[in-house]
Amino acid sequence: MYWANFLHFYQPAEQQPDVLEAIVVQSYRPLIEGIKKHKRVRLTLNISGTLLELFDKYGYKDLIDALRELSEEGRIEFTSSIKYHALAPFLGEDEIVRQIKMNDEANKFFLGGSYKPQGFFPPEMAYSEKLPAMISSLGFKWIILDEIAYDGCVGHVDYKKIYKVAGSNMLVFFRERRLSNLIMSAVVRSRESLLEAMKEDMPSGRYLLTAMDGETFGHHRPGLEKMLFDVFAAPEFELIKISDIPGHYRETKEVLPVKSTWASSPREIEENTQFLSWSDPENIIHEWQWKFTELVLKEVKALDKKHPRYDLVRKKTDLALSSDHFWWASAKPWWSLEMIEVGAYRLLDATRHIPDVSEEVLEEASNYYEKIITTAFNWQRTGKIRQMMKEQKSILRVPFKDRTIGRGGAEEGVYWAFIHMMKRLEGEAAAKGEYEKAILWRDAIYKLENKLDIYDTINAIDLLRVEIPHKEVEETIEKYKDKYRQIRGGQPEQRGA
C-alpha cells in the first residue's frame, strides 16, 4: 500500500530562543536525523520561512543543510505556504500572494535549488473558494486539505481516486483524519498496530495520506518521535511523497471543497462556524481583533512604498497578521492573555510607526488595544473563560454513556457491549503481563462509567476498534442490543438489569 506522509514545521517569527531550543532538541533534530537514517522514508514537508530564519539566527544551520540534502536526494519534497501563518480566508488576495512570495523567497534563500514546491499548504488547512485560482496563478499544482473539506463530512473520500477542484486544473489531496489522529495519539505505534488499524483497507488498493504537526513528535508528546519511525518501517507500506500519488492513481474526480480547517467538525460546517477558533461570531474580542486588523491594513496600503519607513511598517504588520493571537482568544478552549496582548500590541505598534498617521487613527487603534486587553482580563477574572470552555466542550463532545444508556432501549446494549469488550481486553493484557495496557483499559472503563471520556483526544471507543476486528465488534453489539430490545424504556428496575 502506498503511503504519503505530510509534516508541518512552524514557529512564530519571534519565538523565544529557549522555547525554540527545546523544540529543536525534542522534535526537529530527532525527526530530521531519523529521516536521514531511515533510507526508505519519503515524505512531504512544509516548513515556514520564519522557522528557517530562526534556524539561521540561532545557530541551527546544520538542520537547514540536512533538509537541503534530503531534498536533493529526492527523499523529501517541500510545499509552499503563507510566511507568517496568516489565515488565508480572512485576508485579501494581495496580502496572501505577498506572503506566499515572501515565504518562497526565504525558503529559496536557505534551501537553494532544492526548494521546488509543487504543492501548497494553507495554514490550519483553512480553505475558501478563492484559494485554488490564486495559488494556481502562482504555479502550484496541488493543495492539501483535511478530508472534511470534501463535502463537510468525514469518511467520504475515496482514496483510490485523485481529486481536482471543479473548473480548474488544481489537484486537491485530502488528509485522512482517522489514521493521522491514531498516530499522533500513539494508538498506532508499531507495525502490528498499524496493520491492525488498516486491516480492512489493505486489500482495497487504496493509498494513505496522513498529515500532522511535526512538533507533536517529541515536543508535545515525548518519545513519539521514535515511535514514528517504527511505524514507517512497516514493509507492507511503500512510503511516497504527495506529488507521487498521481503517478500511481489515474482515476480523477472533480470536487468543490467546502470552507473548512483541519479542526472543523461537521456540525461547525453545517452552522457556518468552521473558523470558530479565529472568528467566533459570539466573541467580541475576535470582532475587535479583526476590525483592528482592517484598520491597520487600510493605513498600510495607503502608505507610499518608497517611504523610508515602509519596510519597517510592513514587517510589523506582517507579524501582526499571524493567526496565533486570534486562536488564543477563542476560549473554545484555547486561551492566553499573553498571546492576546502580544497580537494587539503588534497591531498598535504597527499603527504608531505609520508615517503621518492621523490622531483619529491613533486614537481608534489605542481604543481597540485597550478594549481587547481590558475585556480579556475581565473575562479571565470573572470566570467567563472557564464557562466558555465548559460550554464548548459540552457542544463538541457528549459522553458515550449519555449517547447510549441515555437514549434507552437497544442503545443501552451498545454501552454494555463496549464495557464487556474492554473488560475482556483488560483481562487478556493482564494475563500476558502487559500491565500498562491492562491499566489503559481499566482507566477507559472508569472514564466511560463516569462520563470522563469527553476529555480524551482519542476516545476509548476508537481504541477498542483498533484492538478488536470490526466484524467481532459489530457481532458483540448486536448480541447485547438483542437483549435490551426486550426492555422497555422508562422501567428503572429493568433498565438497571
Report on this model:
- This protein has 497 residues and is α/β, with parallel strands linked by helices.
- Helices cover 51% and strands 9% of the residues.
- It has three domains: 2-270, 7-stranded beta/alpha barrel (Alpha-Beta Barrel), CATH 3.20.110; 284-393; 400-495, no CATH class.
- It contains 21 helices and ten strands.
- Strands 1, 2, 3, 4, 5, 6, 7, 8, 9 and 10 form a ten-stranded mixed β-sheet that branches.
The CATH topology annotation of the largest domain reads as 7-stranded beta/alpha barrel
**How many discrete domains?**
3
Which secondary-structure class do the elements indicate? alpha/beta
Overall pLDDT score = 90
Number of strands: 10
Offer a quick outline of the entry.
With 497 residues, the protein is of the alpha/beta class. 51% of the residues lie in helices and 9% in strands.
Features:
10-stranded mixed sheet; disordered C terminus; alpha/beta; 7-stranded beta/alpha barrel; 3 domains; 497 residues; 51% helix
Topology (SSEs and partners):
Layout: E1 2-9, H1 17-37, E2 43-47, H2 49-57, H3 61-72, E3 76-80, H4 93-111, E4 119-120, H5 131-137, E5 142-146, E6 162-165, E7 171-175, H6 177-184, H7 191-198, E8 208-213, H8 224-232, E9 238-240, E10 252-255, H9 266-270, H10 284-301, H11 310-320, H12 324-327, H13 337-352, H14 359-382, H15 384-396, H16 400-404, H17 410-431, H18 435-449, H19 460-467, H20 470-485, H21 492-495
Parallel strand pairs: 1-2, 1-8, 1-9, 2-3, 3-4, 4-5, 5-7, 6-10
Antiparallel strand pairs: 6-7
